[in-house]
Amino acid sequence: MAINYTYPVKGSPVTTDEFLIIDSADDSTKKVTVANILALGQGEDVGVATITVTSPIVKGADNRDVALSLGTVPVSKGGTNLTAIGSAHQALVVNNGGTALEYKDVTIIERVKNTTASTITKGTPVHATGWSESDGAAEVEPANATNGLTDLMPCIGIAEEDIAVGEVGPIIVVGVLESITTNAYGVEVGDVLYVAPGGGLTGTRPTGTNIIQPVAVILKKAGSGGGVLQVASVSQGASIPNVQSGEIIIGNASNVGESVAMSGEVTITNTGVTEVTGIDGNISIQGYSPVEDLSDAAVALTDEYFGKTLVLSNATTTATITEDAGYPIGTEISLINSAGSTTIVVDGGNLNGNDTISASYGQATLKKIASTEYVVYGDLVA
Predict the structure, then answer these.
(1) Which of 10, 49, 103, 346 would disulfide-bridge 351, Cβ 3.0–4.6 Å?
(2) CATH fourth-level superfamily of 291-378
């Protein structure tokens, strides 16, 4: 009859526990420990010989232990392939070659298509001309601030690299453009660059009727591609144009400021109002005549006194105006005799009316009424 043996179960075996084996060499029964079996290693007959893993999984030297690596994880496996994080406020982006990831300062990049017949070189401001449905990108050409070429403005960004004919490439709308020559613009670090008349960039604010659009600031001045620009294209020209000589900025019918020459009754130049030919309507003009006190016995009535009131305090004063064809008709000077008497003389012209103010604080006005002709009126005696 068969004999059945029952054994209690040990819940937690240890390496010193023993069990029986049949030795393959002589078929004898022998005892071994669990540790004896574990010490046999990685042989083909006793366990796994080789473990093959792919990052981010790594294996131990004994081909038994595996672990999740915290090192580089390739992009193809959903990682960054980077071993360090970027600086504060940087963003993780695909590089220009589309081959890897990198940390860069936040930059607004737009992919555009060069639809011209020439390469658009790095650092060139560009203007949008349309949209490429097949490429999903704006079509561009070099911007040009020359007056009248409004179809070449405004600038929407600056080429970050050379863009070949018919190709799609990056422009910077807002951000930093590195490795560009910046020492040829005639301005210093911190100064503004504009879209240039004729194309490209300039450190000189466009003048005359050329279009004004600031697009960058120099961060590093250097040659041979060592400079750096802060690009900030606002996609529009300056809202207020250059003011032309003798003109003023005034809103037009579309509520847009434009440079306009004054016409009609008032003429102005870049030195101020030069002529008022008339004032129509029932209006009130208020003002005053500046006063100057003079105590000399002989006073020359030059053009510096035109439109003024002179208070003459010498006991006997001679006030002489020397006729000058350059003195405009209508010129006048007011005279107040504060002591003694004042005699008015016209040298080189004719004086009409009495010529002496004798009363204390008597007043008279000298006025040019025609070429070489003057009149004096007020508190006068012969």
Answers:
(1) 346
(2) gp9 (2.60.120.640)
